[in-house]
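Exercise 7b. Backbone tokens:
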């Protein structure tokens, strides 16, 4: 009998490295939890017990059950490590936890703990902060998992449903939360589960959607810390981090150009326009025709990269002298080359963007978000947010994208010694992945060979004996004065 998720036609494959995912989840949520429970970034709202809480006894012996929360994700991964349902359940759990942590980041809350004669609870109150009270992540996490597994008719759903009930009770009997905290936790978990179910029905690639949300989490946390600390040195660090994560979002945007986010085309374009197309000022409907033409005519005269991307710039697909390379990079950093690109496209009779429904829908949501920001923030904060978003986007982000583009398509036969192909694949480390080659875009040769595959499938196309270019060879690709050879 086929597994429940398979029989439902779930649009994902088995997670190949589930325990690595678990480690990343623990690290990210652990760092954020420490941040929100030790460094509140705003006025702390004190939550007083309500009428219902006055009738709930404090039971010290339920503390071990409360602490069983720490086992939820390890148990989920252990049970689902060979099952296709692990990815949607993991996604829902991470979405619920992330939503609670972002809420604590912007709206700090503190629970008034009761006086208790219990030495066990007194000890626990000393080591665990009363901050990050509402909504209760203890409740949201198992509820989100239960909703998804219940929808998929997975047998283990009963375990997580029971776990949800136990934790909803023990957050109250230990005095860690009040009744409304648990109610809000149920609401967050239920919403995260239902959103995951909706994404399933739209056949959305949850790996890509999870990566998009993780990049936005990094950007949001960076912006929140930078604005709270208000130090010019931190603004500089935030500038670099945001530019790199915007670049990563555009790599996932590139995947959505090929409808790898979901085969439901309107949903694909709406989601990616919402994620980066609209805030990045490049709706995907504008980019897709150019990119698909690039795939059809790579390196030829009709290639849009030849016609527009390097218009009136020093780069001619071969290493440059130091002076010309500096001119190229500075032109990218200071928007000059971007203006040349747009001028070339306009002079070639490029079509103007039509306001499609996905663009309009994403634009309306962003207008609503901006309206809320304008209501909540001062004019100075709004200006700072705009600068920290658009300046990295137009400067360092543009430079990173141009360097990556040069690394993808350069040289060719009899131009760059040792590199016989127009499109390359690179062997890169952590720094290279963070700044230039996120999400396996370093395997660009394999992407061009199999453009019908999403980014996370590309490593499977690399043969064991295949030689990838080493990232240190990038300097030789750019600068004719480098002594390195491919």
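Sequence design result:
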């Amino acid at each position: 009998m086929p597994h429940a998720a398979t029989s439902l036609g779930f649009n994902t494959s088995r997670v190949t490295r589930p325990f690595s995912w678990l480690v990343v989840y623990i690290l990210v949520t652990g760092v954020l939890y420490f941040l929100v429970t030790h460094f509140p970034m705003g006025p702390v709202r004190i939550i007083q017990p309500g009428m219902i809480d006055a009738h709930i006894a404090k039971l010290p012996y339920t503390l071990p059950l409360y602490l069983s929360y720490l086992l939820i994700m390890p148990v989920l991964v252990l049970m689902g490590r060979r099952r296709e349902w692990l990815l949607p359940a993991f996604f829902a759990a991470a979405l619920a936890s992330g939503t609670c942590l972002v809420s604590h980041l912007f709206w700090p809350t503190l629970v008034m703990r009761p006086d208790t004669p219990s030495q066990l609870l007194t000890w626990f109150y000393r080591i665990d902060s009363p901050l990050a009270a509402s909504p209760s992540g203890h409740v949201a996490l198992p509820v989100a998992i239960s909703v998804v597994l219940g929808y998929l008719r997975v047998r283990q759903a009963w375990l997580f449903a029971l776990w949800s009930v136990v934790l909803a009770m023990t957050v109250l009997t230990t005095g860690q939360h009040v009744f409304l905290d648990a109610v809000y936790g149920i609401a967050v978990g239920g919403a995260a589960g239902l959103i995951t179910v909706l994404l399933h029905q739209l056949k959305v690639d949850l790996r890509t959607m999870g990566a998009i949300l993780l990049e936005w989490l990094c950007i949001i946390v960076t912006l929140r810390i930078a604005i709270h600390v208000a130090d010019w040195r931190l603004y500089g660090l935030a500038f670099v981090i945001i530019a790199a994560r915007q670049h990563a979002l555009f790599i996932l945007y590139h995947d959505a150009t090929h409808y790898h986010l979901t085969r439901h085309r309107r949903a694909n374009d709406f989601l990616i326009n919402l994620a980066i197309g609209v805030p990045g000022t490049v709706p995907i409907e504008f980019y897709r025709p150019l990119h698909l033409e690039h795939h059809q005519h790579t390196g030829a005269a009709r290639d849009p990269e030849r016609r527009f991307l390097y218009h009136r710039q020093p780069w001619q697909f071969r290493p440059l002298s130091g002076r010309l390379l500096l001119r190229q990079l500075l032109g990218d950093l200071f928007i000059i080359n971007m203006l040349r690109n747009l001028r070339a496209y306009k002079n070639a009779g490029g079509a103007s963007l039509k306001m499609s429904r996905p663009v309009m829908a994403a634009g309306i949501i962003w207008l609503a978000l901006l309206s809320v920001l304008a209501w909540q923030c001062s004019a100075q904060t709004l200006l700072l947010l705009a600068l920290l978003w658009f300046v990295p986007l137009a400067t360092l982000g543009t430079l990173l994208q141009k360097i990556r583009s040069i690394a993808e398509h350069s040289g060719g036969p009899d131009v760059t010694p040792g590199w016989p192909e127009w499109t390359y694949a690179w062997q890169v480390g952590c720094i290279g992945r963070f700044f230039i080659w996120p999400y396996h875009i370093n395997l660009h040769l394999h992407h061009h060979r199999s453009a019908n595959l999403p980014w996370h499938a590309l490593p499977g196309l690399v043969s064991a004996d295949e030689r990838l270019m080493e990232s240190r060879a990038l300097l030789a690709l750019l600068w004719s004065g480098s002594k390195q050879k491919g």
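Instructor comment: The mean pLDDT is 92. The CA atoms of residues 98 and 441 lie 26 Å apart.
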